[in-house]
Amino acid sequence: MEKEKKKSGGVFWKIVISAVGAALILIAAVSLLLFIFGNKAVADVSIRRIGGADDGRPYEQRYLWSVDYTFMDNEGVLRQGHTQKRGGDMAVDTDDTVRYFEFAPFVNMLESETEPGFGQLIYIGLGLLLILAMNGKKKKRKSPHKAVRRPDGSIDVPALDDYDDSVEEVCHEKTTD
Q1: How far apart are CA 98 and CA 69, in angstroms?
Q2: How many degrees, rounded to 5, is the angle at CA 153 between CA 148 and CA 157?
Q3: Closest CA to 81 of 95, 64, 91
């Protein structure tokens, strides 16, 4: 019973960690695909500073800013988006161009977030690492059966002449000795 619980718990964490890895890969892939295939639109951007100062960061990254934007897609529907950026005390640099998929305009990002970079490679690499670590080769378990050895050290392999009852014959020979 305890072994089954342990096995089911292991499967649960294998699924969860693999899903996190897949999500990291998906985030990076969507960002790159938006850069390559996404439509552009000009957005109305509003920013506000949130939280307190992080004194451990450089001056230009001490505050976290909330960036909200709205834009019109190709069909004239007003869409919204949100992100967060690091900036200085008084302002944060942000662009006003949005990239979105024409077939799914709810998938959108500011253009600066879709530009290919080292961060996307890190996301993909980390995602692959998580998936491979959870689903890699299984450990080969040793068989609980031991070979019967003769006094000279060689392995005793019985001659099994027929298929039907040869195993039963071997079993009976071992129990009568």
Answers
A1: 9
A2: 40
A3: 95
Tokens 């069909």 sit at which residue?
75
Q: How far is CA 62 from CA 13, 21, 50, 55, in A?
A: 36, 30, 11, 6
The answer to whether the CB of 31 falls within 8 A of the CB of 120 is: yes
Query: What's the DSSP call for residue 93?
Result: -
Phi, then psi, of 156 in degrees rounded to 5: -85, 110
Contact between residue 25 and residue 123 where contact means Cβ atoms under 8 Å apart: yes
Q: How many whole angstroms separate alpha carbon 25 and alpha carbon 132? A: 13
> What is d(CA 109, CA 159) in angstroms, rounded to the nearest whole number?
72
- Give residue for tokens 């079993």: 171
116, containing H or E segment: none
**pLDDT tens-digit map of 83-115:** 999 999 888 999 999 999 999 999 999 999 999
- pTM of whole model > 0.70? no
Q: CB of 106 within 8 A of CB of 74? A: no
The angle that helices 2-37 and 118-135 make with each other, rounded to 10 degrees, is 150
Residue-wise pLDDT tens digits, 1-33: 555 656 667 889 999 999 999 999 999 999 999
Residue 154: count of CB within 10 angstroms of its CB = 9
Residue pair 109/101 in contact (Cβ under 8 Å)? The answer is no
